User: Which sequence fits this backbone?
């Protein structure tokens, strides 16, 4: 097995093919509606400027001796991006916020949030699911489905509305609810409700958390406006309740290097993440990143770099973690740059071919947990 593929996992778990039905709750996102304060950490310690990380110095090989696979992004390109956009600096961070006069959200996020395949939220949850179920069911002869709350932050909503919607989604044929949200939109009340719903309705619950990077400098560069701590807190709460977690990562962020990507695989594995969804960085119209791209201030990394980073990520990932996808795609029509103008499935195949050719596979380097340094003792 080169990697733990989602479609095969679903078939094994539910005994048949299972299809995701997108459904919209009509929520928004705290990173777009102006409720988050600009930069809590910077305010607290009075930071005026955060230096650029990992771009103006050549990183030494991993001191643990693990990270030999691949190279970091081209230093010249990184330095150019850093100098031109202020990547990783507080200046760029505040530029991004000022861009639309209020709050721009993540620098890559288009106006409709992270999803784009849903029916209008004016339709009830049940109506949306029934309509999609009829269509997909007829097209593929499917009988089991996942209700996928993809767009925006689906737990960022009053509790009563949230609980009503989740109950409504448990119609016949739905075997699981997949709920996309941000790490700072998870609390015990919602998690506890979902735990009870799982027991009462017999559906699986997977919370899909957007993280993108484990490097907190990169999170600031992206204008995520949450740190790694909020992510860890959310995962621990979800896992304690017996629910599952899927984490979204972008493997070719120029503000990261390959060691950040490897560290991400290790952090997700150590936290007991159940699933991951990998993305490449796409660039949309009407985003902060799109503006920088059009003005020649931002240059994406190469496809080769993305592929190498993704392969390395998989090598350090716990082999039991299910990989929902290795690469995504952008909303059609509004994209300035996506997947190097190549089909996502071609890039997927290039990743798999490279792994087979080079004898690399998911979990190849998954040997770093549970006291790795103690293993040379031969105590009885
Ligand atoms: S990517 Fe997600 S978290 Fe970021 S602004 Fe868009 S909806 Fe909010």
Assistant:
């Amino acid at each position: 097995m080169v990697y733990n593929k989602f479609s095969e996992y679903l078939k094994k778990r539910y005994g048949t093919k299972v299809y995701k039905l997108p459904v919209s709750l009509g929520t928004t996102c705290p990173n777009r509606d102006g409720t988050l304060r600009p930069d809590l950490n910077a305010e607290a310690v009075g930071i005026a400027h955060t230096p650029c990380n990992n771009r103006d110095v050549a990183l030494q090989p991993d001191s643990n001796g693990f990270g030999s696979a691949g190279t970091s992004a081209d230093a010249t390109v990184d330095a150019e991006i850093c100098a031109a956009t202020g990547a990783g600096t507080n200046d760029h961070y505040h530029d991004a916020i000022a861009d639309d006069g209020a709050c721009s959200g993540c620098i890559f996020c288009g106006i409709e949030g992270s999803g784009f395949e849903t029916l209008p939220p004016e339709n009830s949850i049940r109506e949306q699911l029934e309509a999609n179920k009829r269509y997909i069911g007829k097209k593929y002869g499917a009988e089991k489905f996942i209700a996928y709350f993809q767009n925006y932050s689906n737990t960022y909503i009053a509790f009563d509305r949230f609980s009503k919607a989740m109950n409504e989604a448990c119609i016949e044929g739905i075997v699981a609810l997949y709920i996309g949200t941000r790490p700072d939109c998870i609390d015990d009340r919602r998690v506890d409700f979902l735990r009870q719903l799982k027991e009462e309705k017999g559906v699986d619950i997977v919370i899909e958390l957007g993280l993108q990077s484990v490097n907190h400098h990169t999170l600031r560069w992206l204008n995520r406006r949450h740190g790694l701590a909020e992510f860890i807190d959310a995962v621990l709460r979800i896992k304690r309740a017996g629910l599952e977690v899927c984490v979204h990562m972008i493997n070719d962020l120029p503000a990261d290097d390959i060691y950040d990507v490897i560290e991400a695989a290790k952090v997700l594995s150590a936290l007991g993440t159940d699933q991951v969804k990998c993305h490449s960085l796409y660039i949309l119209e009407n985003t902060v990143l799109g503006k920088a791209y059009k003005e020649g201030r931002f240059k994406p990394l190469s496809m080769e770099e993305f592929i190498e980073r993704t392969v390395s990520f998989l090598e350090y990932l716990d082999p039991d973690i299910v990989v929902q996808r290795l690469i995504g795609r952008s909303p059609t029509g509004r994209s300035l740059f996506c997947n190097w103008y190549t089909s996502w499935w071609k890039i997927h195949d290039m990743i798999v071919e490279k792994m087979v050719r080079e004898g690399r596979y998911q979990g190849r380097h998954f040997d770093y947990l549970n006291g790795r340094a103690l293993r040379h003792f031969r105590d009885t």
